[in-house]
Automatic annotation (TrEMBL):
This is Multidrug-efflux transporter. It is a multi-pass membrane protein. It is found in: Cell membrane. CDD domains: MATE_NorM_like. InterPro entries: MATE_fam, MATE_MdtK, MdtK-like. Keywords: Antiport, Cell membrane, Ion transport, Membrane, Transmembrane, Transmembrane helix, Transport. GO terms for molecular function: antiporter activity; xenobiotic transmembrane transporter activity. NCBIfam families: matE. One of its GO terms (cellular component) is plasma membrane. The chain crosses the membrane at residues 16-34, 54-78, 99-118, 130-151, 163-182, 188-210, 244-263, 269-291, 311-331, 351-375, 387-408, 414-435. GO terms for biological process: monoatomic ion transport. The keyword Cell membrane applies.
């Protein structure tokens, strides 16, 4: 047993080394939204906080297809690295940027239509009027965000995630400064403009870094004149199911925001506080899932099935440990955490504290299911997981949330209990899928003519 334990400790250590910078980078992106809400809530109050929350949720819902879809590129790059195929890395990088432009423009049209017809979400007049311009500004900011994510796939796939970590942290600081200046002078829309400027900085900074760092030179040298269309098609074919996996989960939470909005402005503000905390831990868990995807992809590229199993299991174990700690924190410090957002509204504080307790219970399920998606992406299994997430969130979570919140009268806590059920179903199904699929993963031998280094 000792050699086996030592083997898993080694894999966990390697996964942790790779995931920490990714986690910090993911956390930095989420903390931009957290700082926006903290500053909006304290400076402008509960109604603007609710408007910003629903606008951000709806915009990110549409953009999540692009964010999730591009994540497949790092797994494909890691497989090419495992095969020592530099030319393939180069072509995947350039194809990923093309896909980012394509998705940002097509999804942007959808976001504009959503802003134009925002009244369909049934919110109060004040929330609707405040949210509409906020959505339009965030829509523009999705363009540099997706370009940043596309370039980031090269860094992550080559196991160089520290690049994006430092850029994201510096962008977070810039966002805080911009928020302080712009919210004071422009009100609610100042927060959205600050996010736009911070994301433009992120895209420009990572592009300059990759161009100037010597490590990336072999992967950026002009490749043979080969059409990128097949790789663009491959990224879309494998990436869009992953994007819709992300969409189905974000959609469940975004529609939950809308349902909570029907209950009143106080419950909407409380929900926004709790969802910010849960989103923070979730995005940190996605860092572990991304590291698991990269390590699984490299093992696939090396034609090493036992390494695929070890990499996937190590990611699951790390996620359980991390989210277990978060669960304890949410259960024991819920009121203190809520008071960081808002103090002068006792009803909002009371509701939010209850929701944070429920969020604590689904931390483990949330962490396991996001790692399940990551390791399945590493073995290029995307279609069935998409169906599983559709069932978990749209067949289980959302209908149950509605029944518990309205016919059974549980209000916002009922919405959250339904989400907990969906997360648990997703975690069980995706974990089973990985270990059931593992013996049948197709590992291709490296052919000599494909190797370019």
């Amino acid at each position: 047993m000792y050699p086996l334990a030592r083997l898993y400790r080694s894999d966990m250590r390697e996964t942790l080394r790779l995931s920490i910078p990714i986690i910090i980078a993911q956390l930095g992106v989420v903390l931009m939204g957290v700082t926006d809400n903290l500053m909006i809530g304290r400076i402008l109050g509960a109604v603007p906080l609710g408007a910003a929350g629903i606008a951000t949720s709806v915009t990110f819902l549409v953009g999540s297809i692009g964010v999730g879809g591009l994540n497949i590129v790092s797994a494909l790059i890691s497989q090419a690295v495992g095969k020592r195929n530099t030319g393939e890395v180069n072509r995947l990088y350039r194809a990923g940027i093309r896909v980012a432009w394509l998705l940002s423009l097509s999804l942007g049209v959808i976001c504009v239509l959503v802003a134009w017809q925002f009244q369909i979400f049934g919110q109060t007049d004040d929330v609707t009027q405040m949210a509409r311009p906020f959505v339009l500004i965030l829509t523009v900011s999705n363009v540099p965000l997706l370009l940043f994510i596309a370039i980031r796939q090269l860094c992550d796939g080559l196991s160089r995630p520290k690049v994006t970590m430092f850029i994201t942290l510096s962008a977070l600081l810039l966002n805080v400064v911009l928020n302080y200046i712009l919210i004071k002078n422009m009100g609610l829309n100042g927060a959205a403009l600050g996010t736009l400027l911070a994301r433009c900085y992120m895209a420009l900074a990572i592009w300059i870094y990759v161009k100037r760092d010597r490590f990336f030179v072999p992967y950026l040298e002009k490749a043979k004149a080969i059409s990128l269309a097949p790789l663009v098609e491959k990224i879309l074919r494998l990436g869009l199911p992953g994007g819709f996996q992300f969409f189905f989960e974000i959609a469940a939470f975004s529609l939950a925001v809308i349902m909570v909005g029907w209950l009143g402005e106080a419950q909407l503000a409380a929900h926004q506080i709790a969802i910010n905390m849960a989103s923070t831990t979730y995005m940190m868990a996605t860092g572990i899932g991304a590291a698991g995807s990269i390590r699984v992809g490299m093992a696939v590229g090396r034609n090493n099935r036992p390494a695929v199993q070890r990499a996937g299991t190590a990611a699951f174990m790390l996620s359980i440990i991390f989210m277990g700690v978060c669960c304890v924190l949410f259960l024991t410090a819920n009121e203190w955490l809520v008071n960081l957002y808002i103090r002068d509204n006792a009803e909002v504080v009371r509701i939010a504290a209850t929701l944070v307790v429920i969020a604590g219970f689904f931390q483990l399920s949330d962490g396991i299911q996001v790692v399940g998606l990551g390791v399945l992406r590493g073995i290029a299994d995307v279609n069935v997981p998409t169906l599983l997430t559709l069932i978990a969130y749209w067949v289980v979570a959302l209908p149950l949330s509605y029944v518990l919140a309205f016919p059974l009268g549980l209000g916002a806590p009922g919405v959250w209990l339904g989400l907990l059920a969906g997360l648990t179903v997703s975690a069980v199904l995706l974990t089973y899928r990985f270990y059931h699929k593992l013996p049948r993963v197709k590992l291709e031998e490296i052919e000599p003519e494909e190797v370019e280094i």
